[in-house]
Amino acid sequence: MKFGHSFFIGCAALLCLGTSTMAQGLGGPSSVQADLEPGDGLTDPQFRSDFPRNIAPRWFAWKDGLAEKGFRFNLDYLALGQSTNTDLGTGEAASGIARFYGSWQATERGSLTFKLENRHAYTDVAPQFLGLDGGALAITGTAFNDNGTMLTNLFWTQRAEDESWTLQFGQLDVTDFLDPYGAISPYTSFQNLSFNTNPTINAPNPGLAIAGGVKLGSNFYAVGSIADANADPTSPDVDVFSDGNLFKSVEVGYTSGFDRIYFDNVHVTLWHADAADDGSRAEDKGASFSAAWFVDNKWMPFVRAGVSEGTAALYNKSLSAGIAYYGRNTDGAGLGLNWAESNGIDGQQFTAEAFYRFSISPGLQITPSIQYIANPLLNPSQDNIVLLGLRTRIVF
User: Fold this and answer.
1) CATH architecture of the region 8-395
2) Domain locations in the chain?
3) At a CB cut-off of 8 Å and minimum separation 6, what does 93 contact?
């Protein structure tokens, strides 16, 4: 199962490209397309600092020159530290992610996207598993694990001349576009999986896949994918479809306009994952619903729900609601509430998370956060768990 997988800075960044999101590709707020953009797409932001551009002007001038020729890339580093009051486990965790990612506009309608990353822990328990270590059935630090070096993206995107459809194939991370909304990215917004990719979806790890999106008129769209259900990005394998273990998804949605597809969006997603031949994973299937709408270019209330049949997804029932906020200088904030049930475990778990992202510069973000988990399902002796976090991101 994948637990790895931006707030407005990510989804709005796609607007900066001057064409519709679907024309650029299927990637949502946690995709390479979003992470390559420094601004919010709504205003001309005045950042507090120009760091790190001011300490390496030649490096960034060289990058800008390559971007003008169609090759755009970033090197960034993210670190997350968390501590909790649980009476079980270690009580603290920290890890980092080093990433090299970019895109090459090879033709007018075709591009190559890549992302190579190294995920490593500084402590015995990585933040992704700190909640589980402390007795909560929760992924409290999505993507911040100890998986090592991973090839998460290496795919081709082809777009129609009239921008009516987009096709992607290669090494894909389906959570870049699966059941998205503006605050989905664990790199720049919420950290708990309850507010990232829907926790009732047994999404596969990045691997060989094919996905496509098509416009259905001026406001409706559909996106579908077929991916390797057994993918391992630490050891990519081109012979992945021979066992027939596949993950399939289809999404139908409504947006106010394709230049705001991740701002104003209501959609339904259906998915199915085959059982693993070796018996390590049962068959899974489910459905999810998401509604998020940007109000006054500052506030994004959202409601997200999901149900699933199977044992591999974190929850079999989940309901999340909250609001995200866009502030000056592309600062961002969010407050989310979640209710969940899981197969095989009696009881209901409630989760709340709040964060504020300080965008010091286009290349430096600092995000303190707090998570509150009531009735932790794996630790019935404790009424609640409080978890404090601090995440940083620097982009070169």
Assistant:
1) Beta Barrel (2.40)
2) 8-395
3) 81, 82, 83, 121, 123, 125, 126, 127, 129, 130, 133, 141
